Amino acid sequence: MAQIPTERRFQSNDLEAFVARALIAVGLPVSDAEQIAQLMILADLRGSDGHGIFRLPQYLRRIRAGGMNVTPNIRVVEETEATALVDGDNGMGHLVVRFAAQLAIAKAERAGVAWVGVRQSNHAGPAALYAMMPLERDMIGIYLAVGSANHLPPWGGIDLLLSTNPIAFAIPALQEPPIVLDMATTVAAYGKVKTKAQRNQQMPEGWMIDHFGRPLTDPKRAEEGFLLPIGGYKGYGLALVFGLLAGTLNGAAFGRDVIDFNKDDTTTTNTGQVIVALNISRFTPVEAFKRHVDQLIGEMRNSRRMPGVERVRLPGEQSHATWLERSALGIPLNDALFSDLERVANDLGLEKLSGN
Amino acid sequence: MAQIPTERRFQSNDLEAFVARALIAVGLPVSDAEQIAQLMILADLRGSDGHGIFRLPQYLRRIRAGGMNVTPNIRVVEETEATALVDGDNGMGHLVVRFAAQLAIAKAERAGVAWVGVRQSNHAGPAALYAMMPLERDMIGIYLAVGSANHLPPWGGIDLLLSTNPIAFAIPALQEPPIVLDMATTVAAYGKVKTKAQRNQQMPEGWMIDHFGRPLTDPKRAEEGFLLPIGGYKGYGLALVFGLLAGTLNGAAFGRDVIDFNKDDTTTTNTGQVIVALNISRFTPVEAFKRHVDQLIGEMRNSRRMPGVERVRLPGEQSHATWLERSALGIPLNDALFSDLERVANDLGLEKLSGN
Q1: What value of ipTM does the predicted structure carry?
Q2: pTM > 0.90
């Protein structure tokens, strides 16, 4: 029988400080390191276990191999009143997309909507983080990205030409938590496959198939197959379109140009992302809109359920509950991940993590 | 054994003229009737059989019952440099969304992007028609709509609170036809269910289930069940978010407020739609972008296939091929639909259709 990994909990502040120390140790400026650490741990707080501190060893490996720029000159290369193209200068994705989101919010303040594309960026963690940034200014956020490795063939094909290219939407409510939909265009995100592998768990059928179309359930054999798109050709179509919008239009990588950043630590990824901010007040009074969203959430939640279903959930509800729980009780890290982080601490000569 | 319906072909010009005559007969101004007829028959040319002339009897019934305004005052009620909210005054959806698309294109010319929302509109046919409008000006188009009847419960629920809320994207290429993705957030669109019913065909398993979760394959029993969303909770999330963006934000119907326009010919539907136009030239030179899209299309099409797959297709490829074929050979109408149109001609005292 496989051993069930045990888990210990850590306060988010302690994890944030640890991540920041590690990033500073490999050359990032203090304020950049702190901002990235905050976003990475926010991913863990919201339950995106495949996109938070779990990614730290990989980020550090790439930085130390020279594959990411620790002091990027992030700059606007094209601009109108409502659009911009940002060059991330191969900086960490968290910094680059945060810059883009702030720019989009500022532009949408006047123009009503803003579409900001990014190139020369990198993996930035969960899509929801960035879609949620406009919420603070009573705006709706939309985020698109080209994934950081190709795991998906075109529909009917077997060559891995597409990534799981995710999309996220964030829409504010009044009393209720915001509606936050964060989804890969595949049935499962590749981060979830990595988490299963790291936990020594099998995947359910329907996540991946091999080159002959047979179910693939061992996450350690992930390279022998590919992820399945949602709705068959529809998910393939979405992955393709998001890749054209977030990659090709921005001069970022898409298709055969995408580097597998899980295997290659040195080649510039030229990751592309898009953030859209939409100013609610330019369409309707904000409070009335939020109250209406509350009402619709209630309609869904209080509707009749199929036999055996405990609760009708809204997108983002589970992540919000996880955020509340982990903010109070700490973030669980399993033994394997904890060991990885101990190795990071040893390698960089950092103060080690201590749990609750 | 069920009878297989026979089909005759009709030239698109003849069908357009017939639709226009019918709309004029129920009170629409000539130029509006012609514009609507052109869009409806374009739907048939592209193979959207559930959204073209098939809908004419229903539109006429609603108009004659007073459920749609034949002389609407379509107007802008909110506006910034890059956004607008359009009130369609309960006009036919084709006219209202066309107005919105033209406004979005004009705004995106300067602002780089434009987001135009619509309320007090109606069913407008296939999403692709409107997403494709910005293509002529070297822009990318995106279209979202609240469907005109609820056929989808929230995930885990059984109350029909959501429609199949579709999305469409259109992205231009240089030599290749544009990439046009037009998809409902359900495995099948409700229009396809109606087409199956009208043709006396069964639906495949996976399109619909009944209230107990059992497969429902008889399209004439469609009211006893509901459509399945793509990717389970993901498709539900998309339908919800598109409904909030195209409906709630615009002051249009969503959730319990949505009228089933298949059953109710008189109540104002207050349909909501969104059109986004994105100006490629504000990000990258247009011709280089289109050439790059051609190259990516080639990468997909020429990639290796699974055993038994004849061709890797791009979104919109099939519709483009159908458009070429039907433009040359005419649009096939089955006997049942032809009879419906004969009845329309009799009712309104119109010149009848004659086939090839």
Answers
A1: 0.94
A2: yes
